[in-house]
Design goal:
The chain has about 700 residues and is an alpha+beta fold. It is about 15% helix and about 35% strand. Strands 2-3-4-7-8-9-10-11 form an 8-stranded antiparallel β-barrel. Strands 12-13-14-16-17-18-20-21 form an 8-stranded antiparallel barrel. An 8-stranded antiparallel barrel has the order 23-24-26-27-28-31-32-33.
Length: about 700
């Protein structure tokens, strides 16, 4: 064993232990001496809610649920990180209010409230909500200061709906100095019941003077109430179903079961829908829910569920519009260009009907926000049949019920969801198999001895990423290929979820035959290419400026996979776009040939998948493009390729990591014991232990990420 490695590791942990010991001691002293000085509630809050002596009885009704999410703006000195390389903070950001205790007092309908207000500003978490991929970007800049957590205590009046609290927190400045912050929090509209027009708003102000280094600018807050919410809009508007919505035959949409309700379909955060405009949408005003108030025509809309009803048939949404698919996880939508909506599931027609309202005056200060103009309608459904022209698992439309000549009216806009949803009964119908027979002639049947050497239809190796897309000019981009269906059944992400019925497609020109080794298969292809290297056929329609550095191309394809040879041949349809906007689904180029060769399973894990995408049009056709060659590797192989070869250096690295892990556990157990003693001592000064300290001592009590539901 290399003694130098052991000595260096031991020295490193010794230094780390004493550093942690010093930090914990400073933290303990800060808690002890910081909690001893309470701010005068009466001076700052008696004019809002008069202070009253608390009783010992804890109240079982709270102004908030246990954890209430919301948004904030302002407070740049302590909250606004400068833009990183990948991410610029939006105008409003997210917060979390944790209610710890609510006590009755000697005054009727006045209650003492204790809780934490948490602002998360640690890092920029970017999420592509179209593809559900994500990455974390952090910066070494000292302005990335972590979570700002305020401990508050105050009083709530159930009659007036007002809450006033005083408290404190600390954060590091841009220069790395520790700031001790004192604040007063004032919140309105915290009442026993609420509707779609009720917004909880408020402010948080510094208790320090303007020239004090601990001073910060006013922070405004906005929250959507969740206590005793009443679904008034959907009960009135949709008693007879979606008014003025496009009628679709009931059998063309999937039903939802009692075990998987409409609320279950929207769990897990935002869902991005691509907006598809009709030909009459010539300006941002004619098809824009916000008219002239924003200077762009949105290309994406997302629905983020706020709350679900007890019967799980109605739900509330925050509906956001934007021009790109990336958003910061801790960056909220721009409230001034978002809608608040109520939805109800129509079991007769298998669709969700939504009434949506505008949120006004949120751009100047969130405290001034109010709801009005509830004339926007949405409906969405889950198609029962997918095809090469319709690969979306959710489709819908948004429209205005205003008269056409009235201000604020906009034309009907369709939207589609490109993500994967597993629903019972979903089928795929092949439409291009005659063209596949002509473009992909079948060779003589292979010897059965080759069977099993290549991935089977539902293998995880069938899903792969394109690492390189190139021509003779060089590398052009990257992408991914995701199976949509095998036979007439939706492709399952996991191989053990095989369909119970046969995979024989309906009305196909080439039948799936497991005995001959031929399978009908459908794919969704997403590629990103350098705009500077595109020829005419791949450029967005009516857009020759190439101002964007990259162009995204979506292709749906279907064809035949030969299990005996690992060859896949498909006809593809490319979705045509005008600039960065998507128009009718009929705007498609279906003269594309896709060929793929899978490597044998018994070859080295580093073997690549190779293929090509080429146009079948004449060279003089404006949609013709030069062939694209690509290579890639399946997601499955990419995950298990790393441990194939471990040399002597890697073995020593693994040993060091194991030793570091053991020593780290010992150190943090000692640190936990020290903090526990600190907590017991501090409890004499304050009944409520700060959330950050409680998490250090009891790591099993998880505090959810901002935005989790």
């Amino acid at each position: 064993m290399d003694c130098s490695i052991f000595c260096r590791t031991k020295l490193r942990f010794s230094n780390a232990f004493f550093l942690l010991l010093i930090i914990s001691s400073v933290t303990c002293l800060h808690v002890v001496f910081g909690t001893a000085n309470e701010f005068d509630y009466g001076v700052h809050c008696n004019s809002v809610v008069h202070e009253s002596k608390p009783a010992d009885e804890e109240f079982n009704i709270t102004p908030f649920p246990g954890r209430q999410n919301g948004y904030y703006s302002g407070g740049d000195k302590v909250l606004n990180n400068p833009p990183s390389r990948f991410y610029s903070p939006p105008e409003s950001r997210t917060l979390l209010f944790e209610t710890h205790h609510v006590f009755t007092t000697h005054a009727d309908d006045v209650f003492m409230v204790e809780g934490n207000l948490i602002f998360q500003t640690w890092f920029s978490y970017e999420q592509n909500i179209s593809s559900r991929s994500s990455f974390i970007s952090s910066s070494s800049n000292s302005s990335n200061r972590g979570t700002l957590d305020f401990n508050f205590r105050g009083f709530w009046s159930r009659i007036t709906g007002k809450l006033c609290m005083v408290g404190k927190g600390y954060v590091y400045s841009k220069e790395g100095k520790l700031l001790h912050l004192a604040a007063v929090l004032k919140i309105n509209n915290l009442k026993n019941s609420s509707t779609i027009r009720t917004l909880v708003t408020g402010t948080m102000d510094s208790l320090n003077s303007v020239d004090d280094p601990n001073y910060f600018e006013q922070i405004s807050l906005l929250m959507f109430p969740q206590v005793n919410y009443t679904y008034t809009m959907v009960s009135k508007q949709f008693s007879e179903g979606c008014s003025e919505g496009t009628n679709v035959q009931q059998e063309l949409s999937l039903r939802l079961s009692r075990t998987r309700t409409i609320c279950d379909m929207f769990l897990g955060g935002g869902n991005a829908f691509e907006l598809q405009y009709i030909g009459s949408c010539k300006s941002s005003k004619s098809c824009n829910p916000f008219g002239d108030s924003i200077g762009y025509l949105p290309s994406l809309m997302s629905l983020s569920m706020i709350q679900c009803s007890n019967d799980r048939l109605s739900l509330r949404f925050l509906i956001e519009f934007r021009t790109n698919s990336y958003r910061g996880y801790y960056g909220s939508p721009n409230i001034s260009t978002s809608l608040i909506g109520e939805g109800s599931w129509d079991e007769k027609k298998n669709r969700l009907c939504i009434v949506a309202c505008r949120i006004y005056d949120a751009s100047s200060s969130l405290e001034k926000s109010h709801v009005g103009d509830c004339t926007t309608r949405l409906s969405l459904r889950f198609p029962a049949i997918l095809s090469i022209r319709n690969t979306s698992t959710i489709v819908g439309e948004i429209w205005s019920v205003k008269p056409r000549n009235e201000s604020g009216f906009f034309d009907r806009v369709q939207f589609r969801y490109g993500g994967r949803i597993q629903l019972q009964g979903l089928k795929y119908e092949y439409m291009q198999m005659d063209k596949v027979k002509k473009s992909c002639p079948m060779k003589n049947p292979r010897n059965s001895s080759n069977r099993g050497q290549y991935p089977y239809g539902y293998s995880p190796d069938m899903q792969f990423r394109l690492w390189v897309i190139e021509r003779s000019e060089g590398i052009m981009g990257w992408g991914s290929l995701d199976p949509l269906a095998v036979g007439d059944q939706q492709y399952q992400r996991f191989p053990f979820l095989l369909p119970s019925s046969s995979s024989k497609p309906n009305n196909s020109g080439v039948e799936s035959d497991s005995n001959s080794g031929l399978l009908n298969i459908s794919y969704k292809i997403s590629i990103t290419l350098s705009s500077s290297k595109l020829d005419g056929g791949l450029n967005p329609v009516n857009d020759s400026s190439n101002e964007s550095l990259r162009t995204k191309i979506q292709i749906s394809a279907e064809g035949v996979y030969d299990i005996a040879t690992g060859s896949l041949c498909m006809v593809g349809c490319r979705h045509l776009r005008s600039g960065d906007k998507s128009f009718s689904s009929d705007s498609m180029d279906c003269e594309i040939l896709v060929k793929i060769s899978f490597p044998p399973l018994n070859l080295d894990m580093r073997s690549k998948i190779k293929g090509s995408i080429q146009s079948m049009r004449e060279k003089t056709d404006p949609l013709f493009f030069k062939p694209l060659q690509f290579s890639g590797r399946s997601y499955y192989r990419s995950r298990i390729m790393e441990p194939i070869v471990i040399n002597h250096f890697e073995t020593r690295s693994i040993w060091r990591r194991g030793f570091d892990l053991i020593m780290g556990q010992i150190i943090f157990q000692l640190l936990g014991t020290l903090l526990l003693l600190c907590q017991l001592y501090c409890s004499r000064y304050n009944n409520t232990v700060p959330t950050t300290l409680r998490q250090s001592i009891f790591p099993s009590e998880e505090i959810p990420l901002i935005g989790d539901r």
